[in-house]
Each structure stands twice: as structure tokens, then as C-alpha cells.
């Protein structure tokens, strides 16, 4: 049956109208729009840090400490945010109490993560001197920055649980926007206290920003009245199944997440400022990654999970084939465009303030080496979403163990010839 509105339109406009009426396309466009706003504010932080602090041993210390916290949270936060989606989709289809399940995850994970965090802080200090070539003063600074940023680990995981739940309900807008809240608070605190506390102000800003973000997500769930949240500490049967499924992906993410730590540790062998150069180039690389993935990949997982439980595996096969073609071509176009305009973009991002202008070409070259891996990374992420919809997380664990060994080997070989750029090239 043709809609009267569509019949009155020209053929191109009618095709566009039909496309926008599809739930997945509509949700993807809106989520990408809101995510671009939220994440773009977050991407401003390294640029302001570069302008306010430059490239120093202090910034090396912060980026190394922050990288460790991101490694820890990266094991758990993205896992629970994605794994929870098919579980919530299944619960919704069966009219189960999602509030009790989500509260159960928050309660049990909170206690376990606090114990893990305390053990990590106690054991990390002697390890720092073994894996880095920082001087003793910088090692001490890294340790105290780790202590200051440690609460961010738990806050990120809790926020991810709630954000994943909202995504499962197809309420994508606020989870996509919420990183902007953290970014604004973080930038405000850094600006206010950078002269007083130095790089410690960066750590304080990130923690305060994530705390406010978590509180705002709690408020949105209460305001939408999707479910009544009941926090509990009981290890229920469904929670045990969830943790078992998540454990494979967590193992894979733990191994994969070691790569940035290894990269920064090996970059510290190359002299002062090398860790900062690697981090700044990585932040530039993450802009297109985030722009493409945060909208599309979030909605793909939510819609694919619902379709799988309603229509079966054949529908999922068809969806994956279509997504691979679109994402692959889009990623290739973005890669070529960014390589062509890399120099003015690097100058725009870092060519001011305390940043040493002679370092701009090196940052640009390292960024290009990262960009070489953009197409395979994005297409691989599409396949990953299909495995997650099927709760097939073992493949992620197997992939992780293969990649980390290859990364270390390639780092060691390529950094001899290309220095910091060799580490980025090894990642690609």
C-alpha cells in the first residue's frame, strides 16, 4: 500500500522518505548526530591540554596513568554496555523485570570492582619502574595520578551499564549526548585549577565530570519511567549467565586493552615527549572512529538483537552483508580525505599555546600511520556487533590473544625504523 505523501513526491525524494522511515536508519542518523555533539566536546580536551601544558614529562606521566585507567575500564565498561543489550532485548520480549536485573549488575559489579581497584593500586607502583624508562620523579607522579583517577574506573562501568540499558530500549539520544557533560565539567575544572594543581587538575576534572554524567543518566531513567531500578547484591541465575557470557569478551578486551599500555611503555623508550606525541595522534585517529561507530554500532546492536529474537539468523546474515558494504566504503572515503588534509588539521588542532611547533609534522605522520588501519577496524567492528547479538563472545577472546602478541612483535621491529610512527603502524 502506497502512502499518499510518498506518492506525491518525486522519485529521489520518495526514496529518501522511505529510507528515513526505517527505524534503524532513523535511529542511526539521530544517534550519530547526538553522539557527534557529545563526543566532539570530549575530543576537545586533549587539544586544550596540549595548548595549556604542551609536551612535557608531566603530560607523559598523565597520559600514561590515564591510559592505564582506560585499559581497566575498557575491559569492563564497553563489554557491559554492549553485552547487556541482547539480554535486555530478551527480557523485554519476555516481559521480565529489567529493573531488578540491571540493579543486580550494578550492585555485584560495584563491590567486585572496588576490591579489584584496591588490589591494583597496591601492586602497580613497583611494576612502573620495570615496564617504563621514566625517571624516579616521573614514576612517582604517574603513581599519584593513578590514585587520583582510580574512581573513574568504577564510575565508567556503572555509567556504561545504564547507557547500554537505555540503548536496548532504543532511547539512544541521552547516552550519546552524555559524554559532553563529562567534557564540559572536565574542561571547566582544568581551566580553573591548572595553575594551582598542574596536571593533577586534569585527573580531578575527569573524575568529577564522570560522576556528574552518571548522576544525569540515573535521573533520565527515573524520568522516562522505563523500569524501577532495584539495586541488589544477589548472584542470581541470570546474572551468572550474563557474567559467563561477558567473561569471554572481558578476557579478550583485557588482552586487547593491553596494547595501548604496551604502546605507551615502549614509546617511553624513545625519549621525552614520545608518549605525548603518540597520545595526541591517537586522539586525532579516534575522532573518525567515534564519529562512524558511536551512532551506527550502537543502533546496529540494539536493532539486530531485537530482530534476531524475532526473525532468526537469516535476517541477521542479510543485515551484516548490507552493513559491511556501507561501512567499508564510508571508512575508505574518510581515510583518503583525512590523509589528504592531514597537515592543516594537525596545525588547527595543536598549532597554538605551549605546544612545540616543531612536533607538528611528527604528530601528523603518526596519525597517518593510525589511519591506515581505519577501514579494517570499522568493518571488523560490524562483524563484532553480529557476534554480540548472538552472545558469541568467545571469538573476541580468541582474537585478543592473537593481536596482542602480534602488536608487541611489530612494535619492536617498526619502532627501530620509524620511532613513534612505527608503534602506530604496528597498531594498524
- Arithmetic mean of pLDDT: 82
Largest sheet: none
Total helices: the number is: 18
Structural class assignment: mainly alpha
Q: Runs with pLDDT <50, length 5+?
A: 1-21
Keywords:
mainly alpha, 18 helices, 85% helix, 0% strand, globular, disordered N terminus
Write the SSE topology.
Elements lengths: L3 H4 L3 H11 L1 H31 L3 H37 L4 H34 L4 H14 L1 H18 L4 H5 L1 H19 L2 H25 L12 H31 L6 H38 L1 H28 L1 H9 L9 H12 L2 H16 L4 H25 L1 H8 L1
Short structural summary:
With 428 residues, the protein is an all-alpha fold.
Task: Characterise the protein shown here.
This protein has 428 residues and is an all-alpha fold. The protein is 85% helix and 0% strand. The longest helix is centred in the last third of the chain and has 38 residues, at 274-311.
